[in-house]
Amino acid sequence: MKIHGLQKMTLLDFPGLVACTVFLGGCDMRCPFCHNWELVDGSARAIMDEKELLKFLGGRKGLLDGVAFTGGEPTLREELPSLIREIKGMGFKVKLDTNGNNPDKLSAMLSEGLLDYVAMDVKNSRERYGETIGLTNFDTSRVEDSIKLLLSTSQTGAEAGDNATSKAGIPEGFSYEFRTTVVKQFHDEDSFKGIAELISGAENYYIQSFVDRETVRFSGFSACSSEELETFKKIVEPCVKHIEIRGV
Fold first, then answer.
1. pLDDT tens-digit profile of 212-223?
2. Chain Cα centroid distance, residue 198
3. What is the arrangement of strands in the sheet containing 204-209, beginning at the earlier edge strand?
4. Strand, coil or helix: what is 121?
């Protein structure tokens, strides 16, 4: 499997753990404000394969606690579950960053106990999802299935409802977060009213301020003010257990 980037150590990407971050190319969304566009359009060159990654991890036992997979969209890679099995067998915990557009693959990895932490991007309200991810007339149903799946991991019995996925196989201590990168051109108060409805009951939700960088392919995007972010936070706050603003 081609691997397009490796951050050898991070204290930020995997909450509470010292980890490395593995970047995988390919994405099924086209968010115009994406920081990793070279991973989205496939122009980034591969820097190693899975054998080289496993060799690197073998030399980091006792130094790293976990491995975070990000992209692009990691769930597009058919080889990912088998690679994670090997990494888990080495004693590392695994975090997945995902856009939630492949709920079947997410469900399979959760049911097998391959994931210790999932960070899922919730891009916007249903009404503005397609606009935000650069795909006109986008059907949010698969994203919503992934949201429901993650919500079910922290619910039991009647609280979870008849459609909840079994918790069998999910690691003890499994956790997740939802997060939204806020871009002034795409988000407003109505956006966060819609997001609050989508993720109601969530354990953790993070509002992330957009930061313009040279790796953002398109220009013209800007961050919201701190005051606007606080307003958005207050809108969602009653619907989630824990909420923070990042990047301010």
1. 887 788 888 999
2. 16
3. 5-10, 19-23, 66-70, 93-98, 117-121, 175-182, 204-209, 242-246
4. strand
Number of other CB atoms surrounding residue 159 within 10 Å: 11
Q: Within the chain, where are the H helices?
A: 37-40, 50-58, 80-89, 103-111, 129-133, 141-152, 157-160, 189-199, 226-236
Note the pTM of the prediction, 2 decimals. Answer: 0.93
76, 27 Cβ separation under 8 angstroms: yes
Instruction: Return the structure tokens found at 10.
Output: 């991070």
Cα–Cα distance measured from residue 114 to residue 108, given in angstroms and rounded to the nearest whole number:
9
Stated as kind and residue range, the H or E segment containing 101 is none
Per residue in 94-140, pLDDT (tens digit) is 999 999 999 999 999 999 999 999 999 999 999 999 999 999 999 99
SS3 assignment, position 246: strand
- Residue 225 has what DSSP assignment? P
Q: Would you list the DSSP string of 159-206?
A: HH-TTPPP-TTPPTT-EEEEEEEE-TTT--HHHHHHHHHHHTT-SEEE
Residue-wise pLDDT for 176-216, tens only, equals 999 999 999 999 999 999 999 999 999 999 999 998 887 78
Report how far residue 180's alpha carbon sits from residue 195's, in angstroms, rounded to the nearest whole number.
Answer: 9
